[in-house]
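Batch job 17 of 40 flagged for manual review because the log was empty.
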Amino acid sequence: GEHLAKAVSGYKKVAIITEQLDYALGIRDVFVEAMKAYPGASIVSNEVFPKSGNDFRGILAKVKATNPDAVVLNPMAGVTAQNLLKQLAEIKSWTGYRLYGQYAYIADSAREATGAFAEGMTVIDVPNIAKAEFTAMYSDIESTKGTLKDLATYYTASTIDALDLITAEITKLGNDPVKVQNDLSTGSFKGFIGDIVFNGNNFFHFNTPGIYVIKEGKAVLQ
């Protein structure tokens, strides 16, 4: 949410469209708060659609009416994200805005149905993981188990880290969820994704985003 706000901070009028799910709403709430640091930019449209919605024409018409300079798409990944982008692409009379999104649009499959419409779209996601020991494991998984292209490097690395971390914690503390939770909450750990510190939070907070631009149908890390 913070990095999305920074990315669109140079525009005067910004719109965000969010799916009604805790994760997406969390991104939206952080985004709205972070935008307050950029007085030259204002949120002119802040729309929410129901979970797993499939008809966005009404919401898109409302957003279009505000004439935003930038539009942030904030659904969950999957068919909902695909349909939202597809219906936006179908509004041929709406041009002149820059398109932004989050992790839901990293996978090529999320953009395929719209052809070249998403060219130039900026996607804010997690960083790329390029450590040699991880890339070797990543290649081995793909060669033996199949493609990881939709997960990509960070989500694969963080999943492996989570499994390794929980296993190590149970080995050290026993099968006591309270002790494990407390130790995770207050401890400092290392993994493929780097230093892992929760600082009392439920989620690990990464500080360096991955900023991708869609070029020739591919998400290219900037």
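Reviewer: the log was empty due to a logging misconfiguration, but the result itself is present. The two ends are 18 Å apart (CA to CA). Unflagging and moving on to job 18.
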